[in-house]
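can u do me a favor
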């Protein structure tokens, strides 16, 4: 990751054009929370575990026709959404860097940005490798209430499956109009498909760690999916989506596939897992069509997955 510093000393992640799409999705999804969850709103906590500097700077913006050179990164998008949401409770930011000097700079940057926003909700800022960050975050979640977790690593190896599993299992029962339900955290995951494609033969250990499966388990499934006509990227998404479906008893929404500027290659995709049926339907019906302006393609669920999904929830039939 490279950084840009402006004349005030504020730090920005130097990003490519395609990052804009990721942030458009995140903002769009949080807008749903802020604007649509009006009736008797629950509290909301946001955990951004790969928070970085909070801002983006895109050198190639003009060349690629983007309207702005700088924009908010995930931490500041989350902070602004929580400020606007009446029941916003906690903003938990983990901004880690392997270079110690950068860890301090990133945290100081986030502190300055939150102060600049006059952020009034509770906030916790830490700088830890992901394993420690999840342990710390688990002390602050109230699993009875909604929480949104942003898992946006730079590389597939930075997000092992056991992290996703730990977060997905931070659950509690809650009373929904007299009916007891299980609350699961909402997840937004950047799945680094380009890495998974690249490593499938040369670093199978990274695939095993990302998918949380030994190679003897994932390799035959992968070969079967490839034999069924999926390319490597699609097969990897399928395997990951299956794992998430097992964990959540609901398949993820493939919210966006992010292309690298001027290339057809897809760098990563964004998966959304929401426990709330309303969030699930609204994201599919409302957000994704609006999102077309960013040339986002929806995941073409393959026959196996559609069948599995319909078996679980026949009411979703009309959505495909
Ligand atoms: C893609 S950037 C995140 C960008 C940010 N989410 C945004 O949208 O503005 C990934 C961040 O994760 C950090 N990182 C790398 N390895 C990590 C690890 N093992 N644990 C936690 N963070 C890590 C990187 O230093 C970088 O700041």
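np, heres the sequence
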């Amino acid at each position: 990751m490279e950084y840009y510093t402006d004349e005030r000393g504020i730090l920005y992640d130097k990003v490519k054009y395609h990052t804009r799409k990721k942030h458009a999705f995140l903002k769009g999804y949080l807008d749903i929370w802020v604007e649509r969850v009006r009736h008797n709103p629950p509290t909301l906590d946001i955990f951004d575990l790969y928070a970085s500097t909070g801002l983006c700077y895109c050198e190639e913006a003009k060349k690629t026709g983007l309207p702005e050179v700088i924009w908010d990164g995930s931490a500041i998008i989350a902070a602004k959404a929580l400020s606007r949401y009446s029941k916003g409770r906690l903003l938990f930011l983990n901004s880690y860097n392997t270079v110690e000097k950068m860890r301090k700079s990133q945290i100081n940057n986030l502190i300055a940005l939150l102060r600049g926003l006059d952020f009034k909700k509770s906030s916790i800022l830490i700088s830890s490798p992901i394993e420690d960050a999840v342990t710390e975050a688990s002390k602050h979640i109230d699993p009875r209430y909604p929480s949104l977790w942003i898992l946006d690593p730079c590389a597939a190896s930075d997000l092992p499956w056991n992290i996703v599993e730990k977060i997905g299992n931070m659950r509690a029962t809650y009373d929904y109009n007299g009916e007891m339900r299980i609350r699961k955290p909402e997840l937004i995951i950047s799945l680094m498909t380009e890495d998974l494609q690249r490593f499938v033969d040369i670093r199978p250990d990274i695939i095993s760690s990302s998918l949380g499966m030994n190679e003897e388990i994932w390799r035959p499934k992968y070969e079967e999916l490839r034999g069924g006509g999926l390319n490597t990227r699609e097969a990897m998404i399928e395997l990951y989506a299956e794992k998430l479906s097992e964990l959540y008893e609901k398949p993820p929404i493939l919210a966006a596939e992010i292309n690298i500027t001027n290339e057809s290659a897809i760098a990563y995709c964004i998966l959304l897992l929401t426990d709330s049926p309303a969030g699930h339907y609204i994201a599919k019906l409302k957000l994704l069509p609006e999102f077309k302006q960013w040339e986002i393609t929806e995941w073409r669920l393959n026959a196996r997955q559609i069948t599995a999904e319909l078996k679980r929830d026949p009411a979703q039939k009309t959505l495909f």
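Residues 303 and 309 are 10 Å apart (CA to CA). hope that helps!!
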